[in-house]
Structures are given as structure tokens and as C-alpha cells.
Amino acid sequence: LHTIPYDIISDWMNQIVKDHPDLVTRVEYGKTYEKRTISLLKIGLNTEAKKKAIWMDCGIHAREWIAPAFCQYFVNQILQSYKTDAKMQEMMKNVDFYVTPVLNIDGYIYTWKDNTTRLWRKNRSLGPSPDCYGTDLNRNFDANWGTVGVSFNCSSNIFCGTNATSEPEAQAVTYFVGTRKDDFLCFLTIHSYGQLLLLPYGHPNYTASNYEELMKVGQDAAEAIKKVHGQNYRVGTSPDVLYPNSGSSRDWARMQGIPFSYTFELRDNGTFGFQLPEDQIQPACEEAYSGALHIITYAHNQIYSGAVAVTAVTLWTLLLAAGVTLM
Ligand SMILES: *[C@@H]1O[C@H](CO)[C@@H](O)[C@H](O)[C@H]1NC(C)=O
Ligand SMILES: *[C@@H]1O[C@H](CO)[C@@H](O)[C@H](O)[C@H]1NC(C)=O
Ligand SMILES: *[C@@H]1O[C@H](CO)[C@@H](O)[C@H](O)[C@H]1NC(C)=O
Ligand SMILES: *[C@@H]1O[C@H](CO)[C@@H](O)[C@H](O)[C@H]1NC(C)=O
Ligand SMILES: *[C@@H]1O[C@H](CO)[C@@H](O)[C@H](O)[C@H]1NC(C)=O
Ligand SMILES: *[C@@H]1O[C@H](CO)[C@@H](O)[C@H](O)[C@H]1NC(C)=O
Ligand SMILES: [Zn+2]
Asked: Would you say 96 and 27 are in contact if contact means Cβ atoms under 8 Å apart?
């Protein structure tokens, strides 16, 4: 596996649609600051029923190149396992996967320019003062915006923007997910590095109502990750295992009511950082896939597993209540 520039990723998206017209469509849902079209792959079986949804975005931070690679790996993997795996077939029937391989396209392209731009993090919007580019998109969402772990200095790497959701990339996600928020079971946003599974909230004074369950599912996902290549992932809220922050898309998604919202910080743990060697791309993707699939399967089963049995019991109860006797 290699990391590849954006136009090749875009070509790859079109090829995936061509190869799987029954399962995949490409959906455009916004524009970046530099007017590039933001798009995702929607993957699932067309059924008559109303489906639930899984969100995954990669590349909100430009320099975290393993993240777009992971989104591509994830898409290839679910399409591959769909052919033979009964569980994946069941999930494709019940849910649609919405996968954005590169959210911060302007920033990603900028990091490909030359050595001096490789470690750019933010988007490329012009700031409030001259010579000041970029907002940290993962501080720009409307979730305790501007309160902790941010800077109002536009030269800072954690500049949160002039307002909550001031950035077009954050607006695109906010609109697309926000208008379908009841459908989404999972919101997985993929970053590097640190080998962490972060759960809401980034603000130390707020606790997610399902914190215990998020921890348990996260720890099981970390165990699934460890089984693949022995790598350790730590699990917890951002203040507990990394640093406090506000305005993240993960926190925003949880505040919208999406139950299973996680940030993945992929390999490594600091040795190479953002410049992960190519020979680690494949194993990093393999192990993270295992973790993501654990979370997705758990969330899916909360809604769908045993649904038939529950319906039968409910019907029986209703019939009894109505005084109907079944022979
Ligand atoms: C860019 O990085 C490459 C590889 O690390 C190096 O060979 C090259 O000299 C660098 N160029 C500049 C302008 O720093
Ligand atoms: C980046 O940040 C600026 C504000 O600093 C914002 O106006 C712009 O829309 C953001 N997006 C991009 C791609 O630059
Ligand atoms: C803003 O941040 C830049 C870069 O870190 C720094 O050089 C500058 O002094 C800061 N400005 C203020 C007003 O703090
Ligand atoms: C930012 O938000 C404040 C408070 O909601 C509002 O008064 C202001 O007009 C907004 N600015 C922009 C640029 O949207
Ligand atoms: C959290 O609450 C404490 C006590 O009310 C307060 O002192 C502190 O500033 C709050 N932390 C943040 C980041 O707002
Ligand atoms: C990173 O992981 C390696 C291998 O597991 C370990 O030797 C090293 O101490 C870790 N570094 C940090 C900063 O955790
Ligand atoms: Zn990041």
C-alpha cells in the first residue's frame, strides 16, 4: 500500500462506483474553501426499508496521511468481505456506510506540494489577518466551541476559527449528518497519530450519557486491534488520555444524539509520527479495520440482532392484551 495524492483518490472513488454499481454511489455534499467538491462513497444495498447509517471521515487534518489510506482500505475491505461474509451481507442490508476518504481536500493537496508543506494540519482559508492561513477544522464544530484546547490566534495550529462552523468543510459535515442524525448509529473520524480510541467529550466538565458503554465497546475494539499485530491502543476521553479540546466533530456528533462516536488516532505512537513509513500502512490499516468493525458490528447488533424475536414477543403481548386467542 502507498499513500496517494488526491486526484488519484478521486479516480479511485469513481472506479469503486464503476466496479460495484449495485452497492456504491458517490455523493457530493459540499465545497472546500478553495472550491473543490467534497464527496463521499455511500455503500449499501438498495432496499425498500429505511436504513440506519454509519459515518466515517478521513483526512480532516491534512498531514495525517495514514487516515485517507485507511478509508480506502476500509471501503475495499467491506466490499470484499460482502462477497463471502454473511454478517457483512446482513449489515449492508440494514445500514448504509458513508465514507469520506479526504475531508480537508485543500489541506491534503497542500501537504503534497513540497517538503516545507508536508506537516500542514489545518485547512487553507485565509485568516482574519494577512499571512495567516487555516482553521483547525477539528476545533471548528459547534460543540462547546472555543472553550478549551483551542487558540484564537490564527497562526496557531489549533485556531478554532472566528465562529463555530465558520469553515465550509465543517459546514458540509454539519449539514449532511445533521439533517440525517437520527439515522446514524456510528460516527467514526480517523486521525493519526498516537494509537488511541477517543470518546466524547473533549471538554473535561461534560460526560457522555453512555460513557460506560462507549468505554466498554472501545476497550473491546482495542483488544480486537491488539489481536491483529500486537499493537496497544489506549481508550478514553480526550482529556483522560490526550488533552482537553472543544469543537471536535466527534463531540458534535455525540451531542446530535449519535450514540457511538469515536476518534481513531492510528499508528504510530510517536516514533515516526505523521510520516509513517510505507511498510506500516498495511498493518496499521489491518488492525484499525478490526477495531472499527467491532464498533460498527456492536452498534448494528444493538438495533438489528434479535429484532425478529422481539417483534414476535411484542406481537404476542399485543394480541394477549387485545384478548385475542391464538389456536
Ligand atoms: C525533501 O525531502 C527529501 C527526502 O527527505 C530530500 O531528499 C530533499 O532534499 C528535500 N528537499 C528539500 C527542498 O528540503
Ligand atoms: C479554512 O479556514 C478559513 C478561516 O481561517 C475559512 O474561512 C475557510 O473556509 C476554511 N477552509 C479552507 C478549506 O480553507
Ligand atoms: C500567534 O501565534 C504565532 C505562532 O505561534 C506567534 O508567533 C504569535 O506571536 C502569536 N500572536 C499572539 C498575539 O500571541
Ligand atoms: C459569529 O457568531 C456571533 C455570535 O453568534 C455573531 O454575532 C457573529 O455575527 C458571527 N460572525 C460570523 C462571521 O458569522
Ligand atoms: C470546569 O468546571 C470548573 C468548576 O466549575 C471550572 O472551574 C472550570 O473552569 C471548568 N473547566 C472548563 C474547561 O471550563
Ligand atoms: C511505542 O511503541 C514501541 C513498541 O511497542 C515501544 O517500544 C515504545 O516505547 C513506544 N513509544 C511510546 C512513546 O510510547
Ligand atoms: Zn488529527
From this structure: no
C-alpha 268 to ligand 2 mean position (Å): 28
Extract the runs of DSSP E, i.e. beta strands, from 93-233: 95-100, 184-192, 196-199
- Report CA 64 to chain centroid distance, whole Å: 14
Mean pLDDT score, 65-93: 97
Residue from 48, 265, 278, 286 carrying the catalytic annotation: 265
Query: Whose C-alpha lies nearest to ligand 4, atom 9?
Result: 163
User: How far does the centroid of ligand 7 lie from the alpha carbon of residue 13, in Å?
Assistant: 23
96 lines ligand 2 (CB under 6 A): no
Q: Distance, CA 162 to ligand 4 centroid (Å)? A: 8
- Flag whether the pTM goes above 0.85: yes
Residue ranges of domains in the chain, CATH in brackets: 6-321 (3.40.630.10)
- To which residue does cell 460506560 refer? 212
Whether omega for the bond prior to residue 106 falls within 30 degrees of 0, making it cis, is no
Q: Is 230 in the pocket of ligand 6 (CB under 6 A)?
A: no
User: Is the predicted pLDDT of residue 309 greater than 70, yes or no?
Assistant: no
Q: For residue 231, report the phi and psi dihedrals to the nearest 5 degrees.
A: -80, 140
Angle between helices 281-304 and 211-229 (to 10 degrees): 140
Q: What is the pLDDT of residue 130?
A: 63
The predicted-structure confidence for 203-234, as pLDDT tens digits, reads as follows: 999 999 999 999 999 999 999 999 999 999 99
- How much is the pLDDT for 301? 97
% the chain with pLDDT above 70: 90
Residue 90 bears catalytic tag: no
